[in-house]
Design brief:
Blueprint (H helix, E strand, L loop, with lengths): L2 H23 L6 E2 L2 H6 L9 E15 L4 E7 L5 E6 L12 E8 L4 E10 L1 H4 L9 H9 L4 H5 L1
Parallel strand pairs: 1-2, 4-6
Antiparallel strand pairs: 2-3, 2-5, 3-4, 5-6
């Protein structure tokens, strides 16, 4: 075989291996995102799917078993639907009432979801202040404040 042919065949094999590894390492890319209401209504249809779903945490439902590293809790949506969640992983830091929980995993038995990943976000924490309360003079003072000695040392 010519040297160029061998190089091209080797390149195709390497490119194919990289593509395969990327697809195997990102199961979420082949999954689907559903609203909790839709998932609970059609749970049987999604047993073999990798699903992303979110809801509001019900704080009094949290059961953390540190010995087995198992977290159980319930989520609700705005329509009152409730789903039980099981996760064999660490408990997120800001796991409190009203936190939005984003799950990735698969539904199992009725109204139960086994989560591979549990992520939280608190929308009120990241919302800006009301612009009616904006004080341009206070903002200007913050910008005009000279640096302190510790700021210069950095």
């Amino acid at each position: 075989m010519k040297k160029n042919t061998v190089v091209m065949i080797g390149g195709f094999i390497i490119a194919g291996a990289i593509l395969f590894l990327l697809m195997a390492a990102t199961p979420g890319s082949s999954g689907i995102e559903l609203k909790m209401k839709d998932l609970l209504a059609n749970q049987e249809n999604h047993k073999d799917d990798f699903v992303t779903v979110e809801g509001l945490l019900i704080e009094e439902s949290i059961k953390w078993d540190a010995d087995n590293i198992e977290l159980r809790f319930d989520l609700k949506d705005n329509e009152g639907n409730v789903m039980h969640v099981i996760n064999n992983g660490t408990r997120p830091d800001n796991f409190t009432e009203g936190v939005i929980v984003i799950l990735q995993g698969s539904p199992t038995k009725k109204d139960t979801f086994v989560a591979e990943t549990v992520k939280t976000r608190c929308p009120s924490k990241y919302e800006g202040e009301d612009m009616k309360n904006y004080d341009p003079e206070a903002h200007e003072k913050l910008l005009d404040t000279p640096p302190t000695e510790t700021d210069d040392a950095k």
